[in-house]
Design a protein that fits this description.
286 residues; alpha/beta; Rossmann fold; 2 domains; four-stranded parallel beta sheet
Length: 286
């Protein structure tokens, strides 16, 4: 059983981290007292597998002293559990700005009188916990997507390449751009099979049309550069935390050129190890 304890400074990103980890399959428990953690771990270990991955949020809201928690952490590490401590923090200025934006009160502010003093006091209290952390993330410069991407890299398990779903869509410009598209490529420069009688009623999924579209040098050059671009950007989108990426390929009507290119591109992305869906939005429209 895997137990991940999420701790750190208020405003450091613990809540967002817990949400992302829940999406990865962790069972999340927020603000559990230290005295209950061992019993809960035993309960989870005796279960049927539902609690195979557990993440517990433990922070300054629970106690002013962390001696008991550190003893519990040591016990968990000495048992058969795969136990890690993740500590999230941020610079004082970033935490103050985050609290100003949310208009919430820091959990120690009623004792210290000011937000800055509360952040300093919490940093001092949490220092022994930080020293025991397996992983420390300073989220000062992290966007939400970057935080998710980092957690996915650390705790995603088998979700390395396949966690991002890539959707490749063909469309016709005369019917409008797909609103969900992240990347749009225009292939109207390619010779159009629509003007050849034997192919006019066919689509880019038909062999005759595909062979025609890919028989031109400019098509092959375009596909070579497109594959190079896709191979470069997909890992970057994944690292940024993108879960769904939509690439749209457009021609005039969405029947021939865009369909052929979309089918070829989807096969290429699939060969890179990504999950791919292929959709031809306007292929049957007139």
């Amino acid at each position: 059983m895997e137990i991940l304890i999420i701790s750190g400074l208020s405003g450091g990103g613990k809540s967002k981290a817990a949400s992302f980890l829940e999406d990865m399959g962790f069972y999340i428990v927020d603000n559990m007292p230290a005295g209950m953690i061992l019993k809960f771990a035993e309960f989870c270990a005796a279960g049927s597998g539902r609690y195979r991955r557990v993440a517990l949020v433990y922070d300054v809201r629970t106690a002013d002293s962390f001696d008991e928690f550190l003893e519990v952490l040591s016990t968990l590490r000495n048992r058969e559990y795969n136990c890690k401590l993740l500590f999230l923090e941020a610079d004082v200025g970033a935490i103050i700005n985050r609290y100003k934006e949310t208009r919430r009160m820091h959990p120690l502010q009623d004792r210290t009188g000011s937000l800055a003093a509360a952040v300093d006091r919490e940093s001092a209290l949490m220092a022994p916990v930080r020293e025991q952390a397996d992983i420390v993330i300073n989220s000062t410069t992290y966007s939400t997507a970057r935080l998710r991407g980092e957690l996915l890299r650390l705790f995603g398990g088998d979700q390395n390449v396949g966690e991002m779903q890539v959707s490749v869509v063909s469309f016709g410009f005369k019917h409008g751009l797909p609103l969900e598209a992240d990347l749009v490529f225009d292939v109207r420069f390619m010779p159009n099979p629509f003007y050849i009688d034997s192919m006019k009623a066919k689509t880019g999924l038909d062999e005759e049309v595909r062979d025609y579209v890919f028989s031109f040098r400019e098509t092959e050059q375009f596909m070579e550069k497109l594959r190079e671009l896709i191979r470069f950007v997909l890992p970057l989108y994944r690292e940024e935390g993108k879960t769904v990426l939509v690439a749209a390929i457009g021609c005039t009507g969405g029947h021939h050129r865009s369909v052929a290119v979309t089918h070829s591109l989807a096969e290429y992305i699939r060969s890179l190890g990504y999950q791919v869906t292929e959709n031809h939005r306007d292929m049957t429209r007139t």
